């Protein structure tokens, strides 16, 4: 639950900002406490009609009275936006960046030295409140600021805090890029069903519910996936016949390599 004194401004009113606003409003945050800046006046109007929040075409106007500012612009724009808002930021306003790959050092380089800053990496299931966000507070944040950041980010789903920023490349590779791997698997599973003669709509539904339900069973049972896999694999049955094909094709190694390729790419992008 977000503290009642929080006045929150968003620089950027795109997909992720709207996911957060939607989650905050759904969790009882009054729209009167939320301010959004975006250069696109049509988008601002849509946001106003959807949520009733205050809208601004200038970042400075949105952030100056705020005590929490969320940077929800594309990563390349972050330095420009920080330079723009720095002169009007309250000295103790918490800045939360959700920009992929933008390090705490970069954020701090473009802000006053003592500004409390948090770097966060959400993922797109945030759009339906089922995201997972990993956050790391800068040394300028005390525990109350970190708690505020956590409360704000919980508008998108679950939040995990880490204290080693180098893990963010692995986070990007697993949960940040991960939804795309899952979509590819869902598409292929559904195609497999169609290849067996199922109508497409039925195949899509079965694939999605199987993925969702299996993940939920892992989460709620607390059992390792290998144990749950063994429980559905009867001797000489259908499942083991399918698993043999997946193992022959190297599915597990391929998925591991895919995550590591994204990790290496994230490290390259961070170093450039
Ligand atoms: N989507 C994801 O899966 C995901 C996951 C993790 C992190 N993120 C991060 O979240 C951030 C936002 O992503 P998104 O998907 O929400 O992008 P988005 O939909 O493009 O939103 C960015 C918004 O910022 C606006 N904007 C452009 N210049 C601006 C400026 N100078 N001041 C204020 N606003 C400005 C854009 O307007 P125009 O459209 O008119 O340019 C757009 O509405 C990115 O940094 C991204 O790395 C996204």
Question: How would you characterize the overall build of this protein?
Answer:
With 272 residues, this protein is an alpha/beta fold. The protein has two domains: 8-164, 3-Layer(aba) Sandwich (Rossmann fold); 176-271, ProC C-terminal domain-like (ProC C-terminal domain-like fold). It is 52% helix and 13% strand. It is built from twelve helices and eight strands. It has helices spanning 15-26, 41-51, 59-63, 78-85, 104-109, 143-153, 168-176, 178-195, 200-221, 225-231, 238-248, 251-271; strands at residues 8-11, 34-37, 54-56, 68-71, 94-97, 117-121, 131-137, 157-161. The protein has an eight-stranded mixed sheet with strand order 3-2-1-4-5-6-7-8. β4, α4 and β5 (94-97) form a beta-alpha-beta unit. α8 (178-195) crosses α9 (200-221). The longest helix is centred in the last third of the chain and has 22 residues, at 200-221. The chain is elongated. The model has no long low-confidence stretch (mean pLDDT 95). It binds NADP nicotinamide-adenine-dinucleotide phosphate. NADP nicotinamide-adenine-dinucleotide phosphate (NAP) is lined by residues 11-17, 37-40, 43, 59, 72-75, 77, 81, 98-100, 121-124, 176.
What descriptive keywords fit this protein?
272 residues, Rossmann fold, ProC C-terminal domain-like fold, 2 domains, eight-stranded mixed beta sheet, 52% helix, binds NADP nicotinamide-adenine-dinucleotide phosphate
Q: What's the architecture of the largest domain in CATH terms?
A: 3-Layer(aba) Sandwich
**What is the approximate shape?**
elongated
Fraction in helix: 40-55%
Terminal Cα separation, in Å? Answer: 38 Å
Number of extended strands? 8
CATH topology of the largest domain: Rossmann fold
| Proportion of residues in β-strands | 5-15%
Number of separate helices? 12
State the oligomer.
Answer: single chain
Low-confidence runs: none
Number of domains: 2
Computed structural class? alpha/beta
Strand order of the largest sheet: 3-2-1-4-5-6-7-8
The CATH class of the largest domain, by name, is: Alpha Beta
Secondary-structure element series: EHEHEHEHEHEEHEHHHHHH
Largest sheet, in brief, is: 8 strands, mixed
